[in-house]
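Recall from the previous chapter that SMILES is a line notation for molecules. Here it describes guanosine-5'-diphosphate.
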Amino acid sequence: MLTRELSITILGATGVGKTTLIKRIKGEDIEDISPTTQIEVHSKRIKLKSQQYKSALSLEKYRTYKVMAVDCPGDMSLWPYWKKAMQDYKTNGIIFMIDPTQDTKVQIDALTQVSNYFLMTLDNDIVKAERKARKAKAIFFLVVNKIDLLDFSKAKADEYLRENFKAAWEHLKERYPRSFHGWEAISALKGGEEMYDRIDGIFETIKRELYG
Ligand SMILES: Nc1nc2c(ncn2[C@@H]2O[C@H](COP(=O)(O)OP(=O)(O)O)[C@@H](O)[C@H]2O)c(=O)[nH]1
Ligand SMILES: [Mg+2]
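With both inputs in hand, we obtain:
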């Protein structure tokens, strides 16, 4: 098969930049984006940067990756949609987006809910679900967005994560020990080539987790 799918669900509080990231991936105008009020599914065929370097004899060089991105509303009253999104679209990975300039507590709660909702998709019985969680091979990506507001410093984003999200993140890792846990710092809005490379890197990682 020359086309492979990489599907992701993008979650996070309102205004963190989920829709902006999707528009960026799709190469669409990111000037005025209105708030997302329902689950939206976007799809785009992309080539990963690493494919350029493959030998002409390699099938990988000619593949297309079809990114399917599920965009969810961030408003707290609409968080139950997240569970629905995870249930309806069994995507390959969950990208949880964080805005370091917004209220932190709400965002920590949101991440905790992501963990809880995902658990509920595994089994209706909570004990069984916890057991399944220990074996689940999911992909959880924390993405700190708006690092243009942190002087484009990945170190600052790292510090911010450690100070605020450590407990929630550790809890997620303990609950889903066989899953992949990664993080990246980006600016969906600003920054040139390097930001594209980082976004590309997120998909590259997901691809590697899925297809080796
Ligand atoms: N400074 C800065 N602003 C951003 C960035 N990404 C998104 N925004 C702004 O944050 C606001 C909310 O973005 P949006 O994509 O609608 O957030 P969503 O609610 O998570 O979908 C918009 O005004 C965006 O222009 C970023 O990387 N840096
Ligand atoms: Mg949105």
